Amino acid sequence: MQPPSARQVRIAAAFAIVPMVVAAGVVLTNPDAMAIMSRGPLQVGHEAVNCESCHAASPGTIRQQVQAKVHFAVGMRQTPADFGYGAVTSNACLACHERPNERHPIFRFREPRFQGAVNQIEATSCLGCHSEHTTHRATTDLVFCQACHEDLRLTSDPLDVSHDALIDEGAWQSCLGCHDFHGNHPHKAPVLLDAAVPAEVVAAYLRDGPSPYALPKLYEAEEDGR
C-alpha cells in the first residue's frame, strides 16, 4: 500500500482543521454558545445573570482581533488585544453591586498605606475575594482582616472580650461574626462575644449557605447594571 502523498496529507489536515476552526469561531463569537465555554457553575445568587453581563465582547471583527494579536506578537502594537471576549474586571461587578454604603470600597486600597495589606490579599479588585464559576460567594478564608487590622487598638472597646485580647490570640476568624464586611445588612455588631455568629456559620455563608446577617439588604444588586 502506497503511503499518502504530501498533498493528500495537507488536504486531510485541512478537512480536519477547518471544521474545528469554524466551530471555535462560533463558540467564541455567538452569545448563545457561551455556556459551552463556562469553566463551572455560577455562584449562588448569580443563577439568572447572563454571560454578557460580565463578559464584554471585544471590539472589532474576528479578522481585526487576529490581526491585532499578530501585530502585538511581532512588536507592531504596544498593547495586547482580546479575542472574542475581554477579561472580567471589577467594573463588571460594580455595575450591579456598587452602592453608597460600601465599607470597604476597592479604590480605598489603592492608597499607599495599604500596600502591605494588598501584598497579602488583592483588595484592589473584587476578584481578589470573589471568583465566578466556583459556586462560592467568596474564595478567601476568614482571617483576611488581619492584613489591615493587625495593629488595631481601640481607646474605648465596647466588646466584653477586648479586641486586644482577640488580636493577641490570633482569633481573626471571629471578625466576621460581629462585623458585616461590606456593610450592606441592617446588622449591628454585638457587645457580647458569645452573641457573635459562629465562625463555621460564616464560613458556610461564604461558600453557598444562607446569610447569618439581618435581612433584607440595605441595597439590592441592580440587575445587569440597570
Automatic annotation (TrEMBL):
Q: Which keywords does this Swiss-Prot/TrEMBL entry list?
A: Signal
The family database entries (InterPro entries) matched by this protein are listed as: Multihaem_cyt_sf, Multiheme_Cytochr_ET
Under SUPFAM superfamilies, the record lists: Multiheme cytochromes (SSF48695)
Extract the CDD domains matched here: Cytochrom_C3
**Gene3D superfamilies named among the record's database cross-references:** Cytochrome C3 (3.90.10.10)
Report a single Gene Ontology molecular function.
Answer: oxidoreductase activity
Identify this protein by name: Cytochrome c3
Q: Which organism is it from?
A: Shimia haliotis
